[in-house]
Design brief:
The chain is of the alpha/beta class. The protein has 22 helices and 29 strands. The protein is globular.
């Protein structure tokens, strides 16, 4: 049961479950959520404190939403407040901002006279004024706060433009949905013709009654997005007040999806399509959340945090690339957005669509058992497009034949890249390691550059002339000589995307090479600008990490080269092969999408490995079924259920001692006899930011037994001392 705090309600407005309120908590004033209304309390009346105020502008959160966050709190072993309040935008969690948030903000729109006269009336060098005028011309209306972000004197400027008859002020409030308004008025973009497989999938989803989980298993380029668009169009045309939630795994995929949805549903009212992700400014995120909460937003596109958005008329959930690990939150509330999507669909009795070319083995197993309906797309949607051929470049064979590689690029791959540049086609080189080189070392004494705060190597970033830790952010200048022996011949070992970018510029002369990774896209909007350059044909060779591997529709790419994939073959993590197969399938799918023949070249020292052989045959079904058989024999998920207790201490001994005490206290708990508790072990990277980390794995064939034991374990864990932090993760992805 969640821990709730009792307060006296003495305000004029009637209380309601789901209201946001401001309450005194200790010496602070905080925002709380009314979860229950009782007529008596076990707290003495003299000690009851009064609610300070209520958020009158925000309608109460529904009981189903409260039930959703209550389930998440219970299942993932967190407090209800740790789930419910972080699910709200920051502006709603700060009572001092309520008045501004719900104030009627003036909006401005351009008039026909302004469209005709404004461009010529502005001075040639008035770039800020031109940005303001362009924003008015491109958007149905513009708020004063957004306008001031473009021009600091927007208020005075608008007064002048209103006087000239170029713009007008309009009052805008968060609108309630108009059930009588058609969702797809005439003038919408004509729908493309579907393949037979796509049509069958759309019909199945559109005809679903009640809770219906679908696995949309389609090869890369098979038009899964088109299935989503048609299914949503049918739903919204049939139910004008309905809402749809579409989840994508990463922020950099939202612009592409948003553009597709806005083009398809162009006739919808302003604000009917909104996005939700952590990259939004606080004000924009709050406005979008409120639009979903009031029902005026009919389609919500978002990353994992959007699964907890309040949507009172939610009628369908789509989870694109459902296999992606990004759907699992790795700090704070460690929830799986995909799993919560399935629970929420069942709670609301609505369909949920899980789309992927390489479904997670948990999802595939559910479909194999008949619990999910499998919809299959075996061909690419573009008639002329076929799946790319896969060629394995045997690096050992290249070495035996005396064919030297250039900085890790094999001769056949270099030749293929040159051919594509000559043809005017694009190539993609994939390496899932950013930086210039993962190691900087001294051959004379064996010194290796490491992070002083972590048990990890410092990565060389040559353009910035820096050593950088990718775990804690520590940074240092590159030393001129070895700190241990003074040798000046220190050298990089291994390759990152920066080094590959540098090498390609020299081995493929004249090629326009662009790198996209977390380092090149630090500034807001930079990723979208770089991807726009690729789509515009201004790039010959694109180099990048997993940011470029999935979801993007590169129409001119005909060659994909994959470097350094072998490291995942020998990982201690049992999910490593599943992730590698998915990653390579996704990046391979970027080639040959527009009808030109595509080719994938994978450099490997193990071309006969079963994973590569299945990949070359593009046989996901065979790979999935054989891997599931191995998991069944080894008693691994999805055939058992796991939880992980992690502890962080000032020393490794302190963390391990805490876990050992926790394990000893676990034995007498209810259901513990059905749970296997493994020995406490250090994490692979044991120290991060001077904090030592260890973990304890629990496993059971019964989800109910595991959950019961974890609930009973919580008060015991809270009573133990000796560590800085600890957390319990249910269904961990990294073991």
């Amino acid at each position: 049961m969640p821990v709730l705090f009792d307060y006296r309600y003495a305000l004029p407005a009637a209380p309601a479950v789901g209201m946001l309120v401001q309450v005194p908590f200790g010496r602070r004033e905080v925002v709380g959520l009314i979860c229950e209304i009782a007529h008596s309390s076990d707290v003495p009346a003299a000690k009851l404190r009064d609610i300070t105020s209520i958020c009158e502008g925000c309608a109460p959160l529904s009981e189903k939403w409260i039930a959703l966050v209550s389930f998440a709190a219970d299942y993932y072993q967190r407090g209800l407040g740790e789930v419910a309040l972080p699910a709200l935008p920051q502006a709603l969690r700060d009572a001092s901002r309520w008045d501004r948030l719900f104030a009627v903000e003036p909006r401005f729109r351009i008039l026909p006279e302004g469209r005709a006269q404004l461009p010529d009336a502005l001075p040639a060098r008035a770039s800020a004024l031109r940005r303001l005028a362009d924003a008015l011309a491109e958007q149905p209306s513009l708020t004063l706060s957004d306008a001031r972000a473009l021009h600091p004197k927007a208020g005075a400027t608008f007064d002048d433009w209103i006087a000239r008859g170029w713009i007008e002020a309009v009052t805008a409030q968060i609108a309630e949905p108009d059930a009588s308004a058609p969702m797809l008025p005439t003038g919408a973009v004509p729908l493309p013709l579907l393949t037979d497989e796509q049509r069958e999938a759309v019909d199945a989803i559109s005809g679903a009654q009640g809770f219906a989980p679908f696995l949309l298993h389609g090869v890369t380029g098979s038009g899964k997005t088109e299935v989503y668009l048609h299914a949503l169009a049918a739903l919204l045309a049939d139910r004008p007040d309905a809402q749809a939630l579409v989840l994508v795994p990463e922020i950099n995929l939202t612009p592409q999806f948003e553009a597709a949805f806005r083009a398809r549903f162009a006739a919808l009212a302003d604000g009917s399509i909104v996005t939700m992700h952590s990259g939004l400014a606080e004000g924009e995120r709050a406005r979008n959340w409120l639009a979903a909460h009031t029902g005026s937003a009919r389609i919500v596109l978002g990353t994992r945090l959007a699964i907890l958005a309040s949507m009172p008329k939610l009628a369908i959930i789509v989870v694109d690339e459902e296999h992606d690990p990004a759907y699992k939150q790795q700090e704070g509330l460690r929830y799986s957005a995909r799993d919560l999507a399935i629970y929420r669909a069942k709670q609301l009795d609505i369909p949920v669509v899980l789309g992927s070319a390489t479904p997670s083995l948990e999802t595939w197993w559910q479909a194999e058992q008949g619990r999910y309906t499998r919809l299959t797309l075996t061909r690419r949607a573009v008639a002329e497009a076929v799946l790319p051929s896969v060629r394995l470049i045997d690096l050992e064979e290249e070495r035996r034949r005396g064919r030297a590689s250039v900085e890790g690029l094999a001769g056949p791959l270099i030749a293929a890249l040159k051919t594509r540049v000559e043809r005017g086609e694009q190539s993609l080189v994939f390496l899932n390691r950013r930086g210039y080189a993962p190691i900087l070392s001294c051959e004379a004494c064996g010194w290796v550059a490491g992070c002083p705060r972590c048990s990890a190597y410092a990565v060389l970033h040559k353009p910035e002339r820096a050593l950088r830790c990718h775990h804690c952010g520590w940074e240092s200048r590159i030393p001129k000589s070895c700190p241990e022996c003074g040798n000046i011949d220190i050298a990089p070992m291994g390759r990152g995307t920066q080094r590959v970018e540098e090498t390609l510029a020299s081995v493929v002369p004249g090629a326009r090479v662009l790198r996209i990774d977390a380092d090149s896209t630090r500034r807001k909007g930079s990723a979208q600008a770089l991807f726009s350059d690729v789509h515009a044909g201004e790039v010959d060779i694109l180099v990048g990490t997993q940011m470029i591997a999935k979801g993007h529709d590169f129409r001119r790419v005909t060659l994909v080269g994959v470097l350094n994939a072998d490291t995942a073959l020998f990982s201690h993590d049992f999910r490593a092969s599943e992730r590698l197969f998915a990653q390579l399938t996704q990046v391979s799918g970027r080639a040959g999408r527009a009808g030109l023949p595509g080719e994938v070249m994978i450099q490997t020292r193990y071309p006969r490995h079963a994973l590569y052989q299945a990949l070359s045959r593009q046989d996901y079904v065979g790979f999935a079924n054989s891997t599931l058989a191995e998991r069944r024999d080894a008693r691994l998920p999805p055939f058992v259920y796991q939880a992980m207790l992690r502890a962080e201490g000032r020393t490794l001994d302190a963390a391990l001692k805490f876990l050992e005490e926790a394990a000893a206290a676990f034995g007498p708990l209810p259901g513990a006899e059905r749970v296997t508790v493994y020995d406490a072990v250090p994490l692979t990277i044991v120290k991060v930011f001077n904090v030592h980390r260890a973990q304890l794995l629990l496993e059971s064939a019964s989800r109910a037994a595991l959950q019961a034991s974890l609930r009973a374990w919580q008060p015991v864990l809270r009573s133990l001392k000796g560590v800085l932090r600890w957390n319990v993760e249910v269904d961990p992805l990294d073991v």
